[in-house]
Design brief:
This is Flavin reductase. It contains three helices and no strands. By secondary structure, it is mainly alpha-helical. The protein has one domain. The structure holds zinc ion.
Length: 63
């Protein structure tokens, strides 16, 4: 549940962030939309987590 399957760190882990930046290198706007959708889903599953913490986790690393 929102943990990286490979390294068991909170998703998106540093490696996954790096991969996403590569996958969306030509369309950073789509990456932001993708992360917004992920954040919406995660906030349902992680309803105990502080919204500001989730925002930082899903958006704090975007360029
Ligand atoms: Zn990982």
């Amino acid at each position: 549940m929102w943990v990286c399957a490979a390294c068991h760190r909170p998703w998106p882990c540093p490696r996954r962030r790096w991969e996403l930046l590569g996958e969306y290198a030509d369309s950073p706007g789509e990456l932001a939309l993708h992360m917004a959708a992920q954040l919406t889903a995660a906030s349902r599953d992680l309803h105990w987590a502080a919204p500001a913490v989730l925002c930082g986790r899903f958006f704090g690393w975007l360029p």
